[in-house]
């Protein structure tokens, strides 16, 4: 069975620096991810008045997201390893985009809590999936920069969310404000499905770029990357440095 590269490479011109276009898609995914999760935080002062939530009620909504997100990262990491990066991130973005739009149907505390839980479960795949995509597309010497690129989307998404969400709220109400990030997710999903393949399969990758990637990765993760145990990882100072330095806000 022929791959997309074998079928179309003779008809399509290579895209220069294709790996950085992939990195840009991962960045955009993180931006949308954070706009989604910031929507409730931005609308909380108004929703607390409308639904008479206490601070404890609102904290419980955040906890429902965090529980699903924490558990989901481990589960989604294994899922992406099993189904592949392209399909795994497609499922993740489709899931949380649908949930974001469906949140507009919420009627009170319990329905909001359920939607926040489902949103956390769906969004938890973004970092495992983006990290795997970086390992597939970037040589080791560029992976730090590529990871920083997609991770910076969390700051950018949080910064621009007020300028997108609040104008919609003040003009049309809170329900459309939840719909908008979900629609952005579907726009991204369309671009991702058209753009993302592994370097071995991609019909638009140039031969020099493919050779450069394969020279360090062989197109797949090596045995040490696949089968490293937690006990081995915890012995590395880099692991503890990442744990200590890790910070990521939740809505």
Describe the structure.
- The chain has 251 residues and is mostly helical.
- The chain has one domain: MFS general substrate transporter like domains (Growth Hormone, Chain: A).
- It has 13 helices and no strands.
- The relative contact order is 0.18.
List keywords for this structure.
mainly alpha, 251 residues, globular, single chain, 78% helix, Growth Hormone, Chain: A, 13 helices
CATH architecture: Up-down Bundle
SSE pattern: HHHHHHHHHHHHH
First-last Cα distance: 46 Å
> What best-fitting shape do the alpha-carbon axes yield?
globular
**Low-confidence runs (pLDDT<50, min 5 residues)?**
4-9, 220-227
Number of domains: 1
CATH homologous superfamily assignment: MFS general substrate transporter like domains
Strand content: under 5%
Which structural category fits the helices and strands? Answer: mainly alpha
- The number of strands is 0
Number of helices: 13
CATH class label:
Mainly Alpha
Q: In which range does the helix fraction lie?
A: over 70%
Q: Major β-sheet, in short? A: none
Mean pLDDT: 87
Radius of gyration: 20 Å
What CATH calls the topology is Growth Hormone, Chain: A
